[in-house]
Amino acid sequence: MKNFKAILDILRENISFKLGVMVVVTLFTCFVPGLWILGVQRLVDAYGDWQHAGGNLRENVGMLAAPLLLLAVLFLAKKLDQMFKIPIELSLQENIGNSLKVQLIRKGSRLPLVVRESAECQNQMEVCNAFVGEISQKANKVLLVFRSGIMMVSVVGAVSTLNPWILLALCVGTLPSFFSMVYAMNNAVKTDQELGARNRVLSYYAGLMTGVAYAKELKAYRLYPVMIDRWKEESIYINRKRLLQEKKNAVSRLAGGICLSCAFTVAAILLMGLIMGGSVSVGAYVAMFGAITSFSGALGDFTVSVTDIMALFGRVSVFREFMELEEKTAVQGEKIVPESVGTGYPGIGETCYRLQNVSFRYPGCMDYVLKDVSFEIRKGERVAVVGENGAGKSTLVKLMLNLYNRDLGEILFCGKPVAAYGEEIKDICDYLPQDFIRYQGSLRENVLLHNMSRHVQNAGISDEQIIRALERVGLSGLLEETGYNLDIPLGKLFEDGRELSGGQWQRVALARALVGESEYIFLDEPTSALDPVSEIQVMEAFLETVAGRTAVIVSHRIGVARRCDKILVIERQRVAQFGTHAELMGHAGPYRKMVELQASLYQ
Amino acid sequence: MVKIWKTFRFVWKYGWKKKPFGFILLTALTLLVGLLLVAGTWITKASVDALGQADLSWQLLAPVLLALFLKELGLNCGYSGIMPVLESKVRMDAVHSLECRMYQKIGRLPVRVREQETVQERIARAERFLGQEFWLFQFECVFVFRLLATCFGLALSLAYWSVWFPAITIGLVMPVILIRLKNNENLYRINQKQQRRKRRNEYLCGLFFDMSALGELSATGAETPVIDIVERTAKELTEERYAQGQKDGLIQGASEGILSFVSFAVCVLLVVAKGGHMTVGTFAFLLESVFLLQEEMINLGFNLKYFHQSALYGVDLAELDAMEERQGNSCCGSGLLDNMEERQGASCGGSALCESSREVQNRLAVEVKGLTFSYPGAVEPVLKNVSFTLADGETIALVGPNGGGKSTLISLLLGLYPPDSGEIRIYGASVDGMSREQGRESAAAIFQSFLKYETTVKDNIVLGNIPQSDNRELISRAARLSTAETFFGRLEKGIDTKVGSVYQGAVNLSGGQWQRLAVARGFFTDTALLLLDEPNAAVDPVTEAELFRRYREGMEGRSGIIVSHRLAALQKVDRILVLEAGEIVEEGSHEELMGRKGLYYEMYLRQKNWTV
């Protein structure tokens, strides 16, 4: 029932007044088939009478005029729904699809990142997305249920003016058909659920083969036959299951069909009896044939659309559950005005970040990613975070930006818990993750990506600033090539787009972090796509540019670390060392070991 | 129409024909249903005429009733009972064999062809045809056939009374179909116009489903503005289509109503003009037939559109299937023959004669002469006149700035790309596109964009050499050499642990861990030549150092080419080639190159000064 309400809510939100009127008119036209039957009955009877009266062209031909006129009106009325069909379908399909999709991604953006990144949540979102696609395709089926329902009622009503027993025969005869349909539908949903995991595997193999990313390796190792075999195995299994279910459905549908045929025949016999008795005209018999055709058609539509909608019902709960997921915790207490964090406070050299015994683990995991982490960063310091793969460096940055919520301990930013800043922290700090976006838009949009809201409001970043940032990261060559045109589209999305090399993309992304001139900058392995020579160039320029600002840089490169003011070494989920290059080199510790290891290679 | 035919022929040849009985049965059943509808009009006539007779009795009505029952049984049981399961069966069989064929075809296409964007799009459309559109295509195939049969039957049975009936009905309903086609065209044009905005919107939407974009989007507050753009654009697009749809719908509905009434009225007048010779039964028959003919014709117009739409994707599949599988190669004309001979030579390794001739060749693992290669559409070649040799058992390094052509050279050595000119020989056998199948016996590679095979750890490793899948010793050797054992050794199920996210309960790996699995895959191979393309890009410096230490053990008895940026780790290789802008600018051992004070010296010093 909750699901039904959810679907109704979706519909209500998307139906405007104008659309409502059109829908009502369309529904009204569904009464036409009933009237139509009566019109045909009149016409046939009038023809019989006219023929009886002599069938003269000049005399009595007016007898036919009245039923013809009635049919003319009905012809037009019948096509009224054609007039509104396209607008209604468009509104229902596209508006509902669009608004649900926007709801979905908005909801996604409000979820805590740690939840959003979990495989579970991604699966859920993908299922929801598929659901949205489907509902937008099938939204007009809701209308079709009503339409075919009304049509059936109108036909049955018209038939019942002839004799109530006929009505009874029709109703009893259609019931098994309904039940077989419900049975088939339940089967289909169940089979779909059973095959869900298998289907995912199937499409994974298909994707491996059709995608181009791994084409070289698959080809070089001659792996296509292997993949095809694996794919075949899944495909055959799924097809067999599906067919089995279809066969079961066919048996039930056959039974329904036999009952329906019997019902129609019984109705015909009853009608013939009435005609023999003389209480009904021959026209009624003809009309009934028309009625049967309309009725079968409407029943078919009804069946299909109800099946589809019920299948959707099964999945609307996934969407509902997703929409009800807990969002980011709201800011408690008074919000901090970002201005207070701006230029003046805290002053250069004063503590801006203080982490005390911070621990964190991913939801559902036993092991901590970070344990008892404590350190302080002063304003204006450039801090390098080094450590092995999987030591927890990226997680630490995300905790400092309030993207994740620490489990234990305290993270203070400018004296207040970092959580208290809520969304405001995004305006104060800038962050470039390891997986940056290759934004398929213009060069300008690419550089302004982190300042989109400012950009949209047209508040402030001039083209000169953009160009300066691009030049800093070593993209003057690209600018010159394109004649300083910031509107050229980048990427492969459009035919006229300009595809950049990995290194160029990385530089564009770095320009994003520079252009906003944030006081606090966080970079996560900013040079992994650059060759060493370019890396050195870019990092030298970058470190120079951010001098005086607070920067946290996660990097594997000793070269980067030794040029920063402080180095934070993370080892096995804990802070192993923290200090300047000189200080750390003075102790026998992991940092010195790392430096010596790398230096030894250059002997 | 041509496209429908082309698709039909292809689908028939490689899909339905595999199990022709099902498809023929389906068609026969369809035809039967179509004709049953025509028969229905005659049953109406018979029963009304019977009812009109003076000496009406049940005996007279019995055959009519039987016919009626059989007709209904045929429609209700045949059409909605058996048809769906038959349709599914035929569809599943056809799609399965067509998909198999498509994947095999994709596997045979040269990599360079695969990498073209137009080919990628074609594959995507062919995939969509089999995934979504095929259902519609088969349905329309059958349905349009049924409509044609019904229309034809009705027209014939109407013509029995007067040719004017079908002529008038068809003549007047035709414009309705034409208007529909025109409307479709309008819609198509709008779609074309909106395509760019639509594509962009889809891309923006996709960002929110892309794991790797999440961090940046949510940390920088770019989400809300982007969602706003998505919402606004989507609304705008719908509104434009809505306006057009409203206009078209009005014209369509009005024309359908008026024209079908006119054709109907004219038919009635025709009957009247004939002066009442027709019985009431015939009149009823005419009414029913004319109505039905109108409906079915309009249906036909409607379904032809979908038929055509779905067939458009099918054409891509047919074209994909017909694509050239050999690499377009300017210099392979003469090379083809001796290549064949060489292949024979290589395959007769047992005989003493071949053995000796191989021994001579074996001294050179790789021989590259005057190699030039450019990507399609590019002005500058990526490789310009590159020549070098690699002796058996030797390991050399390829270094140089990004974009210098290092990875391209590796692909060429594997025979994945055909050279524009020049020659590559691996253990004496020429590697151009033709000898791909043989390449396995001589060269294997660890790829820069390696495969993350989301099954078990073991599967990831043994992919490199499937015949040796059960050789535990080899697997653990490869795992040790790649340092991969350090992380999966800790996992509960060891090498049988499922990794990735496709299977439920699989373990997620980091980039560095995946790369170590790819490296293990490379060491699992048993070819004489191993190519390593940046095998250390995703691992941390400590593991990297360890990896390089173990490489030497892994390369024992094999020849190798290693591409890397970490110059310090490469000093131990036999020779270093410096590749810049497609040319080999320097060649020699580390000491020689340092002495030359060229590009290598400069790169090395810069890295050294930056690090130490």
Q: Name the overall outline of chain B.
A: elongated
Major sheet attributes of chain B: 6 strands, mixed
CATH topology of one domain in chain A: Rossmann fold
Strand content of chain A: 5-15%
**CATH architecture tag of the largest domain in chain B:** 3-Layer(aba) Sandwich
Q: Give me the CATH architecture of one domain in chain A, please.
A: 3-Layer(aba) Sandwich
Q: Which structural class best describes the helix and strand composition of chain B?
A: alpha/beta
Q: For the residues shown, what is the average pLDDT of chain B?
A: 82
Annotated CATH homologous superfamily of one domain in chain A: P-loop containing nucleotide triphosphate hydrolases
Number of strands of chain A: 10
Largest interface: A-B, 161 and 155 residues
Basic shape of chain A: elongated
Structural class of chain A: alpha/beta
* Largest sheet: spatial strand order of chain A: 6-7-8-3-9-10
Q: Name the assembly state.
A: heterodimer
Strand content of chain B: 5-15%
Q: How many runs of DSSP E, i.e. beta strands of chain B?
A: 10
What is the residue-averaged pLDDT of chain A? 82
Kindly report the CATH topology of the largest domain in chain B: Rossmann fold
CATH class of the largest domain in chain B: Alpha Beta
List low-confidence stretches of chain B: 329-361, 433-440
Model description:
The complex is a heterodimer of chains A (603) and B (612). With 603 residues, chain A is of the alpha/beta class. Chain A has a domain of 257 residues: P-loop containing nucleotide triphosphate hydrolases (Rossmann fold), CATH 3.40.50.300. Chain A is built from 21 helices and ten strands. In chain A, strands 6-7-8-3-9-10 form a six-stranded mixed β-sheet, with helices on both faces. A four-stranded antiparallel β-sheet of chain A has the order 2-1-4-5, covered by helices on one side. In chain A, α15 packs across α17. The longest helix of chain A is centred in the middle third of the chain and has 54 residues. The mean pLDDT of chain A is 82. By secondary structure, chain B is an alpha/beta fold. Chain B folds into two domains: 177 residues, no CATH class; 261 residues, P-loop containing nucleotide triphosphate hydrolases (Rossmann fold). Helices cover 65% and strands 9% of the residues of chain B. In chain B, strands 6-7-8-3-9-10 form a six-stranded mixed β-sheet, with helices on both faces. In chain B, α15 packs across α17. The longest helix of chain B has 51 residues. Chain B is elongated. About 7% of the residues of chain B have low confidence. The interface between A and B is large, with 161 and 155 residues.
